[in-house]
Amino acid sequence: MMRFGLALGESRVILSLPSRFGRLSDGRDGYWIFWRRASKKNGAQLLGRVCERQTVCLRRLGDNRAEKVRFRRFLMNDRVTVEKMVARLRARVAAAGRHVLAIQDTSEINYESKRARKLGLGTVGNGSDVGLFVHPVLTVDAATGHCLGLADVQVWRRFKKKAANYRKQPIEDKESYRWLKGPRRAKWGLAKAAMITVIDDREGDIFEKWARLPDRRTQLLSRACRDRTVVGGGRLFATMAAFPEQHRFTLDLPARPGKRRARPAHLAVRFGKVGICRPKSCSDPNAPRQIELFAIEVRELNPPAGEEPIHWRLLTTHDVETVEQALTVIGWYRQRWHVEQLFRTVKRQGLDIEESVVADGGALEKLAVIALAAACQTMQLVLARASPDHSQPASRVFDDREQQVLAALQDRLQGHTVKQQNPHPPGSLAWAGWSIARLGGWTGYDSDKSTGPITMRDGLERFRAMVQGYFLNEDLCPS
Q: How much is the pTM?
């Protein structure tokens, strides 16, 4: 089984005390401790199975009826909470001494196609379909590009419509508070990080966030959503457009089926300092009247006909006074795409969580956390293979027996040309990621861009079958 050393949740159910467990020296019931540890073990096993088998279908995760029952009971246990599960995920992020990019975003999980079989779900974005929302904070090492794990996950069900006075309500009473709450909770787990840069898209452009989150080691980077009033008069977007052009560069854009074709984009960069005024909609009377930020505009020059041009307006608390600093910040913002890939891995093309037959809304919340954790492991492989830094060992994802199988597969996976040789140090996570991508259908050539999370997911599923066959043969035909 693929190793993922992480226990999720805990149970504090106190049952009648069987004599065989007795009492511990500190007075606690022995059965209480036994039950709590059993629940942790079930959570760890469930997560391990999802990582191994790349599915959230309980029927496929359990090898027998007893396991299926245990997994279902774990999800239904009221003492196992999303908060406890997330706390354990947060504790696994190795952030000491690193500059961590904390990338956050929101996605809905839509169960409308199975509405008749669901209980206790709210509505999603269209106001009618049933489902729930997830808001993870994915962490990436700014220097190496390695995926470090999940620093926070918020899951909720929407049962109420917006109040009539929604805009006047305190930010703490709004769903948009998630954009502040996620990074705040992430900072607890990233206390040993040298620096944290919170990255989000336009929905995270909230004045209260700019006012409250930054500190000596916490910086913010968002795509501007609102054409705010700037200090001295005028509007933000016009001010950014009036900055002098400082640099041009070309960016190779990958294709996104149904959205755009692959193309080289020729981009112009402008940047400068701006002061944004507190908006009337800000409900915090203690918020400052103005905040100074650095602004970067990235605009595509002469885009192809019929294609939407690249146009990013970025706001950040990082100093941006040189072209080098501007390009560094732009590079960090581009890492935001990883959280989109995380969602893609959880949904239809990956773990297919929206097809789960689990009925209870609370249990589906916990299953969503487990699915995000498993998808995060897939992203570890994707980013390790793409990173120039090969210091991460394969043991971050694979145990010793699985690494034996990976080593045995190398002759089969590698071709006759130099470009089809595994270029990464044996035993590194990048070496393992290259191998899994090949099993997922990647040709091994740089021109083949199909090395994303879905390819990795397919490779992991195939690898799992190979591991079972490899050791079944070893058991049946011992040397």
A: 0.89
pLDDT in tens, 93-135: 999 999 999 999 999 999 999 999 999 999 999 999 999 999 9
Q: What pLDDT is attached to residue 8? A: 59
Q: How far apart are CA 29 and CA 22, in angstroms?
A: 7
> How many other CB atoms are found less than 10 A from the CB of residue 89?
23
Which residues fall within 8 angstroms of residue 240, CB to CB, at 6 or more apart?
224, 270, 272, 274, 295, 296, 297, 313
Q: DSSP state, 281?
A: T
C-alpha–C-alpha distance, residues 355 and 141, integer Å: 33
What token pair was written down for 208? Answer: 């209260």
CA 145 to chain centre: 14
Cβ-in-10-Å burial (0-12, 13-18, 19+) of 240 comes to: buried
Residue type at position 80: V
Residues in the chain: 479
Answer for the pair 53, 62: CB distance below 8 angstroms, yes or no. Answer: no
β-partners of residue 139 are 102, 149
Identify whether the C-beta of residue 162 lies closer than 8 Å to the C-beta of residue 145: no
